[in-house]
Amino acid sequence: MPLVVLSYGPYEAHGAVKYRTQRLHGLLRGLTQKQYEVEIIPSIHLNRLDVKMLENIIFQCDIRNLLFNIDYESDPVCMRIIAVIEEAEARFFADRNVPRFIRKGYPPDYLKSLSAKEILEHVQKSSIISLLYEHSKHIQPKQNSEHLVGSNAKIETSHGSYKRLQQNRMWSPSLCDIIPKQSSTGIDETLVNRKFAESVSYDIMSDIINDVVASGSELLISEDFLYSNG
C-alpha cells in the first residue's frame, strides 16, 4: 500500500496552543485497518491538516473539524478523508498515470551513460529536461586552462552552434552552464550542465541529443531527466 503522510499543525484549546494527535485517532485507526502506511509529521501551520500521497497534497482541512478521540466510523470528516485517499490511490496508480507520478526506481545519485535511442525512450514530451554531457580532449601541458575551455566549448547541432561566450561564461543561446575541470591525466574534462528552463519541442530535443552523440561527446544523463515531471 502507498505511504500516506499526515502533516498536522497545533491548535488552540483551553487557552493553550499545542500539538494534539488525539484529533488524528480515528483517521490513524481507519488507515491502519485498510493497511496504509502512515507517517505523521508536525508542521508550523496553525489549525491545518495536510494529507499527502506521492508528495502531492490530496486533502487539506482544519484539524479541529476532526472529532477528538472518536473512531473514524463516527466521524464524517474522517470518512471523507479516507475516501479521498482511496480515490487518489486509484488515480495515481492507474496504468496510464504511473509514468507521471511514480519514479522509475533509480537512486538519487544515479548517473549513467546512455545511447541516444535509450534516452529518447525515457523522454516525456512535456517534461523540463536536465542534460549532462561531458566532452574530453587530450591537451598539451603548456596550454592554459582558459584556452582549453575555449577549445572544447562549442557543439554544432542542426539547430545552430552552441558556443560559450568568453565574457560571461554562458552559452549562446543561454541554455547552458559550463564548468571547467583539469584532471591529473592531462585531459580537459569540461562538464556541461544543460538546463531547459521551459518545455522544449520533442523533435528539437531529439535532434540535439542525436547531434551531441554524433559529435563524439560522451552523453551522460542525470536522475531528473529519467523522471517525468508531469
TrEMBL record:
Organism: Popillia japonica
PANTHER family reported in the protein's UniProt record: UPF0728 PROTEIN C10ORF53
Pfam family name, one: UPF0728
Protein name: Uncharacterized protein family UPF0728
Annotated family: Belongs to the UPF0728 family.
